[in-house]
Design brief:
With 318 residues, the protein is α/β, with parallel strands linked by helices. The protein has a domain at 102-119 and 155-196 and 221-314: SPOUT methyltransferase, trefoil knot domain (Alpha/beta knot). The protein contains 9 helices and 10 strands. It has an 8-stranded mixed β-sheet with strand order 6-7-5-4-1-9-8-10. It has a two-stranded antiparallel sheet with strand order 2-3. Helix 5 packs parallel to helix 9. The longest helix has 43 residues, at 3-45. The protein is elongated and about 145 Å long. The N and C termini lie far apart (121 Å). Residues 79-92 have low confidence and may be disordered.
Length: 318
């Protein structure tokens, strides 16, 4: 075959291949267009998604009425129950009502705790000319100059006892009254509503202010939270009152067996020594008997807590 014909044949073959490629591309494009058209048609045939219906005013009013009825039933059921925990129907805690008149103090049954021989004494420093509460941690040299021991300056014991007593459920139920009788024969009445400072340093500052101003009032009103009162302690005790002293040397009793023996309409007065050690004859002139509540020697704070817990169980205070 001549060369010139071979050139023509190759050119024709190239044109044929180009036509084939062009045809295949057209087929692909047309197929894609058909698929797109079919998808669009199928979407048009499907119904649009339903939107959530807006609640009508009648339905909204019905739900509100049902909710109000349920709340009214709940409040009525709570108000019909006896209110033993000093709470109202809205579950807001209420402050316990304390006996104020002499008649109420005579008839209201409660626990009266007297912290005897409390180490609360102020000392004036020459350099700073300020008064501080004498304690064995900060005033060692002062105690040595005065010829006194560390046991004569332990106000931390009174602080611990007050926190145990005033934080107890018995006090929050309005069934506790606390008095402090210091080693210097100062008698202090503690209001059950007072909140004793948590830190010992702030407690010392409060006691210095009390011993010099003779009273501490609340910020909001004229209520006396702490005040110095006249001796003796017996004039503040009700007539129907069983008076005892906690002593390690006395006969040991179980409080759950001892408390039912006391008449049910009697208040209970407990004298507890707020000192590290020493004789327990501080209340022999006015107490009825001495008892021991443990076979072991207890600190004053533990004795306060143990007696309060026993009375909470006996008087059904939760």
């Amino acid at each position: 075959m001549p060369r010139k014909y071979k050139k023509y044949i190759k050119a024709i073959e190239k044109e044929v291949e180009a036509l084939k490629k062009k045809r295949s591309l057209n087929e692909i494009i047309s197929g894609a267009e058909k698929e797109a058209e079919s998808e669009a048609s199928s979407k048009k045939q499907q119904p649009p998604p339903k939107l959530p219906e807006k609640p009508s005013e009648n339905k909204t009013q019905e739900t509100l009425n049902k909710t109000q009825e349920a709340l009214n039933k709940l409040l009525h059921s709570r108000s019909s129950k006896p209110n033993n925990n000093n709470t109202n129907v809205f579950l807001v805690p209420q402050a316990p009502r304390l006996p104020k008149t002499q008649a109420e103090k005579e008839t209201t049954r409660r626990l009266i705790v007297v912290l005897e021989q409390a180490c609360l004494e102020t000392y004036k420093f020459r350099k700073s000319k300020n008064y501080e509460l004498l304690n064995c941690d900060d005033h060692v040299s002062v105690l040595q100059k005065m010829g006194r021991t560390h046991s004569d300056a332990r106000p931390d014991i009174t602080h611990q006892c007050l926190m145990q007593l005033l934080d107890s459920p018995l006090n929050k139920a309005g069934l506790l009254q606390v008095y402090i009788h210091t080693a210097r024969n100062v008698l202090i009445e503690v209001n059950p509503h007072v909140r004793i400072p948590r830190t010992f340093k702030r407690f010392c500052g409060l006691m210095v202010q009390l011993l010099h101003k003779l009273s501490i009032s609340s910020v909001k009103g004229s209520e006396k939270l702490l005040r110095v009162i006249k001796n003796p302690i017996t004039q503040y005790l009700p007539t129907n009152c069983h008076k005892i002293t906690l002593s390690y040397d006395a006969k040991t009793v179980r409080l759950k067996d001892y408390l039912p023996v006391i008449p049910s309409d009697y208040s209970i007065c407990v004298a507890i020594g707020a000192m590290p050690h020493g004789e327990d004859s501080f209340a022999d002139s006015w107490v009825d008997e001495k008892i021991s509540i443990s076979e072991y020697s207890l600190s004053a704070a533990v004795a306060c807590s143990k007696f309060c817990c026993a009375l909470e169980d006996f008087w059904d205070v939760l």
